């Protein structure tokens, strides 16, 4: 299963709400496995919600601050890593 199919499934079935880990694993195990497969660049500690967001948005690596190159913190499924692209107020320069 390719990444685009997994992304489309997430978008069409969940929209702005994060998929339920247990429900997706039980009902769509191939999609669930695909999410982990396509986010193998993320640390094991990354949440399932963050992984789903990355697949949905077509990301291939964790976003970094545009000023200092630090990894951005994941905010929520709806807001992702934030619109500013900055890791903190200090980086606003």
Question: Which features characterize this protein?
Answer:
0% strand, 93 residues
Describe this structure in words.
It is a single chain. Helix 2 (21-27) packs across helix 3. By secondary structure, the chain is mainly alpha-helical. It has one domain (3-92). The relative contact order is 0.15. The model has no long low-confidence stretch (mean pLDDT 90). It has helices spanning 3-14, 21-27, 29-37, 48-56. The protein is built from four helices and no strands.
Shape: elongated
Tally of extended strands? 0
Give a short account of the largest sheet. Answer: none
Rounded to the nearest angstrom, the radius of gyration is: 14 Å
Distance linking N and C termini: 43 Å
The secondary-structure class comes to mainly alpha
Give me the oligomer status. single chain
**Helix residue percentage:** 25-40%
In sequence order, what are the helices and strands, one letter per element?
A: HHHH
Q: Give the low-pLDDT segments.
A: none
Proportion of residues in extended strands:
under 5%
Whole-number tally of structural domains: 1
Mean pLDDT: 90
Number of helices: 4
Which secondary structure elements does this structure contain, and how are they paired or packed?
Elements: H1 3-14, H2 21-27, H3 29-37, H4 48-56
Describe what is shown at a glance:
With 93 residues, this protein is mostly helical.
């Amino acid at each position: 299963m390719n990444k685009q199919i997994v992304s489309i499934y997430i978008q069409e079935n969940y929209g702005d709400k994060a998929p339920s880990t247990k429900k997706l694993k039980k009902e769509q195990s191939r999609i669930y496995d695909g999410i982990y497969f396509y986010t193998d660049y993320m640390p094991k500690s990354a949440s399932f919600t963050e992984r789903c967001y990355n697949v949905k948005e077509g990301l291939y690596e964790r976003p970094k601050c545009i000023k200092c190159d630090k990894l951005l913190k994941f905010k929520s499924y709806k807001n992702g890593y934030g619109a500013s692209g900055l890791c903190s107020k200090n980086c606003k320069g």
